[in-house]
Amino acid sequence: MTIRALPQISSSRNGLGAFVLQCKTMNLYYCDWAGSSKGMNGFIKSLFPKFAAANPQIEFTVSPRPSKHPVIVANYINGREKAICVRNMEPYEILKKIELLRDASGEKVRKVTKPVTSINESVRGVWSPYHGNGLRV
Amino acid sequence: MKRLRVDRWTSQLLVARPGAAASTPVSALRSAAVSRAAAVRHRSTAAAPQPLQEDDYFDGTDHPRFPPLESIPPRSISLPSPLPERALQSAKLAALHARLSLSPNVPLQTLARALVDASADANPEFNNTNLAFVGRTLINYHVAEMLMVRYPRLPMEILFGAMKGYAGPVSLHQVARSWGVEHAAAPGGEVDPGLLQFSLSKKGDAITGMGYKRAELEGIKKFKWRHGISSRVVFDNEFGEVVEDDEHDVEQLRARRDTEYGNQYTRALAQQAYSTAAWAVVGAIYTHCGREAAKNFIRAHVLSRTLDLSKLFVFKRPTRELSMLCAREEFELPVARLLSETGRLSRTPVFVVGIFSGKDKLGEAAAPSLEQARNKAAMNTLKAWYLYSPGEQARVPSDMLVDDAKPWEPAHIDMGEVISW
């Protein structure tokens, strides 16, 4: 046999066939007593049920954390977690924060310098000095 | 005179100690709760109801210190896998169901069953073996069909390699991970049904593999006996790999299991369990929603992944194979011509060589030596031939199974790869 196959694994392209939301679980922590949790308690009572019903892909837990600031901790499919402290925030500010955590991919926040990031090869190809008419010096 | 309470004696004997549960056979455990209820009913004089036995609800934790979040049914800890009705209370399972956008026709109980590996629960009525077998055949079918229609000239070796790249256990392990499936540290009746359950201490004995064990397996392994591609189609598994029992090094690795954190053996078990779960989810969709839903799911989660087939090829004698190909297709004999070059006498020369058949250029490549450039150009030419594709939109045979399908237009069928030696 002159042809052999190298072992290769196909790579995933989330969103091309199916889209899987990258946020897996969210843990909401509140304190019953402390003033910094006032907005969080209001959020859990008023806005949170609707938000949780609209996002069934995410597993939510709500737990007390007495004498501490309220926190939202999100876990992602890539194994990372992101936490946002929501002390002294109003319920609608907290809703913004929880939406930010839901929409995040879980990757580290990096500066994007290129307009396009792709796993596909460039359509134009890599420039070659041996093709074309060349440059007359 | 104080009355002897015989019923108390028997009930004392019937209460199972938590430690003793492990040695009880599985079938006995499943019916243990029933038999206990029956024993209570047979009492002749039940003066006062017995206080609830702590042992029945024992779930391995210290309840006064750590009150349970969920009330686990009695004797759950003695079961090998969680009870099906607990699937309805699992938040993880509901989230997974929504994350995969599964139809409401797929019940949570079936999804929970798809996450129980045969190594966790040996009972095929509670583990995912049967679902996985259905799912595996479906995934293999759709991947093979897609590859054959989209790349009709692929050599058999490459076809097997591409099959493994899309539908192999490594790939499906990644698919299941990308669904956010997590695994329990150890299987048992008390774990959340939304976690993948498999045992690291033993292998499931369920047969989910395909292919036959060859009689000449020892010779193939020891002396590398030739086993041709046709016999691989018949005897070997769906990826053309020889079926063998991988028990030789396992004993040593198993012994190291407790002393080190994860080794080759445990990783292989985890990979196997994850890929089996991915198969089983497809099997569950097929069972409850039918053929089209399963096909759409496979297309969305398996076929949508990307694999660069040109990176699979390894050629041994590309120039000879190319001349055989040209002879077979009645092209003019291929000739390698130097298109351009630079720095022939320098440390880094570059030669661009093209392969021509008559006036047609079949391929070209650049390399630092003439010989290499010619070989690379021949490889590029062969890849260009083998990777011919009628396009991404080519219809596959299973498209004809829907009721209002347009008439079938015959797909391209190639005469096959070049036979050379």
Automatic annotation (TrEMBL), chain A:
The biological process GO terms on file are: mitochondrial translation
Keywords annotated in UniProt: Mitochondrion, Ribonucleoprotein, Ribosomal protein
Per the record, its GO cellular-component terms are: mitochondrial large ribosomal subunit
Picking any one GO molecular function of the record gives: structural constituent of ribosome
Q: Provide the protein's localization.
A: Mitochondrion
Where is each Ribosomal protein/NADH dehydrogenase domain found? 32-105
Write down the Pfam families for this protein, in alphabetical order. Answer: L51_S25_CI-B8
Family from the record: Belongs to the mitochondrion-specific ribosomal protein mL43 family.
The record, for PANTHER family, names: 39S RIBOSOMAL PROTEIN L43 (PTHR21396), LARGE RIBOSOMAL SUBUNIT PROTEIN ML43 (PTHR21396:SF2)
Which named protein is this?
A: Large ribosomal subunit protein mL43
TrEMBL record, chain B:
Among Pfam families, the record links this protein to: DSRM_MRPL44 (PF22892)
| Primary location class | mitochondrion
* Alphabetical list of SMART domains matching this protein: RIBOc
- Gene3D superfamilies xref list: 3.30.160.20, Ribonuclease III domain
Q: Which residues form the RNase III domain?
A: 93-181
Q: Name one GO molecular function term.
A: double-stranded RNA binding
Q: Name one GO biological process term.
A: RNA processing
Its recorded name reads Large ribosomal subunit protein mL44
From what organism does this protein derive?
Trichocladium antarcticum
